[in-house]
Design goal:
Tumour Suppressor Smad4, 2 domains, 6-stranded antiparallel β-sheet, 9 helices
Length: 330
């Protein structure tokens, strides 16, 4: 759709770094046509129908090549800054992550239309996985400052990890490509992955003024209350602008199956083989590793060590439904 001339800039909210919502902002929607559930064309049809009925200005910016997500998101941010608009990400966790990474610190509001399997980020803030409901919540929404984590300067919304967990995610994606996207497929792929003896990492952890050596097959850093509650880890430290790290001590395959079952029944925090602690900044060195495979909101990449995990100094200005639950303080 066409756009009016850029509106006169208005004062930004100190809590979010973005202007307060007026209710008529144009939407710049970055849509990953190759991710998430269902048919991409049907998704676009729903978006057009709802926004046309509401009389809201918008621009759909579909992306069929994941390597173009970041560039398209940067373009959306530039246009939103000029038009006092909102950047919206439509897709799975990786899409939300890629677009949010371009929005953070740019002074524009961020909206989401979740299309992923678990939707931990959207559910945390009362954003429906049903596209039409999510759109209507976005149109009448309000801004909330949302805490995000950083790993070597790159944003993550839900979690970041290394070791066994990225391998679980890689195998899960392969199974989803073969058998479809469902929680049962995700669970089955995890069971198969654990049949292979995991490689142990020699970690040196530097946080809260202390050094700690730990051997573990995996380290996961969480930033999402719902996910931590789901596996049985106390999420209360998130309310204090902190992140929560979890690691498993060296164990055999049967014990790993036991940890998986405890996670499914929200009892991982009681497991004797699990170490968890909160921090605002964590440095991780890995003996014998200059590079390591990491996962951030389900997307796999390689990073140079040491790794630095920390809370972003700048919150993400997320558009949430007015009746969304209270979020963690940022």
């Amino acid at each position: 759709m066409g756009y009016l001339l850029p509106m006169t800039p208005i004062q930004q909210s100190p809590a979010t770094g973005a202007p307060p919502l007026a209710g008529h902002e144009p939407l710049f929607i970055v849509l990953n046509t190759g991710s998430g559930r269902g048919d991409a064309q049907a998704l676009q049809d729903i978006i057009r129908r709802v926004l046309d009925e509401a009389g809201r200005r918008y621009q759909l910016m579909p992306v069929d090549d994941p390597t173009r997500l970041a560039a398209t998101a940067r373009d959306a941010v530039a246009q939103a800054r000029q038009a006092n608009g909102i950047v919206v990400a439509a897709g799975g966790d990786g899409t939300l992550n890629a677009v949010a990474g371009q929005v953070l610190g740019q002074g524009v509001p961020f909206g989401i239309l979740p299309q992923g399997t678990f939707n931990y980020f959207g559910r945390r803030y009362g954003i429906s996985q049903d596209t039409e409901s999510a759109l209507r919540g976005l149109l009448g929404g309000e801004l909330r400052p949302v805490q995000v984590g950083l790993l070597n300067g790159r944003l993550f919304l839900v979690n970041a990890s290394l070791g066994l967990y990225p391998q679980l995610l890689e195998d899960r994606e392969a199974y989803k490509q073969r058998f479809g996207r469902s929680r049962m497929v995700a669970l089955w792929s995890g069971l198969v992955t654990l049949l292979r003896a995991p490689r142990q990492l020699s970690l040196r952890l530097d946080y809260e003024g202390r050094m700690r050596d730990l051997r573990s097959p995996t380290l996961v850093v969480g930033n999402n209350r719902l996910q931590l509650e789901h596996i049985g880890i106390d999420p209360s430290e998130l309310d204090r602008n902190r992140l929560v790290a979890m690691a498993a001590r060296p164990v055999g395959t049967l014990a790993l199956y036991g940890l998986l079952l405890r996670g499914l029944f929200s009892r991982l925090g009681d497991a004797e083989h699990v170490v968890s602690f909160a921090f605002d900044r964590l440095m991780v060195s890995i003996r014998g590793r200059r590079r390591v495979k990491v996962a951030m909101d389900g997307e796999i990449s390689w990073m140079q060590t040491p790794l630095e995990f920390k809370v972003s100094d700048v919150p993400l200005p997320l558009v949430v439904p007015v009746k969304a639950p209270d979020q963690e303080r940022s």
